[in-house]
Specification:
heterodimer, A: 191 residues, mainly alpha, 2 strands, 3% strand, B: 191 residues, mainly beta, 15% helix, 51% strand
């Protein structure tokens, strides 16, 4: 498998980043939903937010890396037989996923830093508080963080449904090429 | 001339005599010589202190008839502050103060009983989290007199201990943390 993208296929870096981010996003979201309901005496009461925040901040770095990679590599074109509305819808959802991820990370950061404390990342270093004491900062940021998080999970679901539809109903290479697998030649030629 | 002025001042004092006794004091919010704090056990191992940054109120104080004194305080519950953004967000939530539903907490005294030269039990209605219950502030009159800027001030401090459950705060913080001590420590400027 090649490292860089081509016009036909995603390379190793793009595929790895996609799946690392996918697992981290879904895991962090579920962790976030779960941890806010924890009992005060749960042994996870302190560690779950620590991991949630550490992974969340790391995600921002990974997404920036991914965008840089995307902009310095060829983007595989939509498969030729995809309808125009499918390509446009996919593009819109991809853009929304990126935008939501950024806003969610930033709003989460604004909750923790509302009173001037930084955010520890795996205990390795601390991201300092840069914006503090906005009116109702933690509550407003929390509202945005929660509802966009729910929205993001919905979009992830749509994104995954689209991929599964292409794979199982259309029998095309959409999902295969994000898994780094060889294209199914026959189907491509049919199209 | 001097005698005349002295005489006018004296007659003025005599004329004011009646009103001086039961003077109205506004809590010194502007100069921040007033505190509404609380103290609750953390796990039974230490005291956690917090406070409300935004509140206002007044009291009357009559040195000759202290039993006729009264206190009124209105607290903006959203201003709860324990110097920790996430904890304060949690305190504002439905688990504790439900500040969206109950933006104000109030204390209105209903009676003052002197227990010593400078100590009193101030009985009053405390409304917190939408629940109104009678409480007794064990208070100490601290001092009164002219300030260096042409005003006249008086101050007192009082505290009462509440069961969280009595005010429908149901989040369980453990057996050592069922009660919170509420501390009102204020200075008033005579109006």
């Amino acid at each position: 498998m090649q490292v860089r993208n081509t016009r036909e296929r995603y390379g190793l870096i793009a595929v790895s980043l996609h799946w690392i981010i996918a697992v981290a996003v879904i895991g962090t979201a579920i962790l976030g939903l779960w941890m806010t309901g924890l009992d005060y005496y749960s042994s996870w009461y302190q560690t779950a937010p620590f991991w949630h925040k550490s992974v969340g901040i790391s995600l921002a770095a990974l997404i920036i890396l991914r965008l840089l990679w995307r902009w310095t590599n060829p983007s595989p074109a939509p498969l030729a037989h995809h309808k125009r509305w499918e390509a446009v819808l996919a593009k819109v959802i991809h853009s929304a996923l990126y935008i939501l991820l950024f806003v969610i990370v930033i709003s989460g950061y604004l909750i923790s830093t509302a009173k001037g404390r930084g955010v520890s990342v795996f205990g390795w270093f601390e991201v300092p508080a840069l914006i503090t004491s906005l009116p109702s900062q933690a509550d407003r940021a929390g509202f945005v963080h929660y509802w966009l998080g729910i929205g993001l999970l919905g979009l992830v679901g749509l994104h995954a449904l689209g991929a599964l539809k292409h794979h199982f109903l259309d029998h095309d290479n959409t999902l295969r090429r994000m898994l780094g697998m060889r294209p199914r030649q026959s189907k491509e030629q049919d199209a | 001339m001097k005698k005349l002025i002295a005489g006018m001042a004296l007659s003025g004092l005599v004329a004011m005599g009646g009103s001086v006794q039961a003077a109205d004091y506004a809590i010194d919010k502007e100069g921040q010589h007033a505190f509404v704090n609380f103290k609750i056990s953390h796990l039974g191992y230490s005291w956690l202190y917090g406070g409300f940054n935004d509140f206002d109120g007044s009291f009357t104080w009559d040195a000759d008839k202290p039993e006729e004194s009264s206190v009124n305080v209105v607290i903006n519950t959203e201003s709860v502050d324990t110097n920790h953004a996430e904890r304060d967000k949690h305190l504002r939530s439905d688990d504790f103060l439900s500040v969206d539903d109950h933006p104000e907490a109030t204390f209105k005294s209903t009676g003052v009983e002197m227990t010593g030269d400078k100590t009193a039990n101030i009985t009053g209605d405390l409304t917190l989290n939408g629940v109104t219950r009678p409480v007794v502030l064990e208070a100490e009159f601290i001092g009164a007199g002219e300030d260096p800027w042409g005003g006249y001030r008086a101050g007192f401090a009082g505290s009462t201990t509440l069961k969280l459950k009595d005010f429908e705060i149901t989040k369980d913080l453990g057996p050592a943390s069922q009660e919170v001590e509420l501390i009102l420590s204020v200075e008033g400027v005579r109006q």
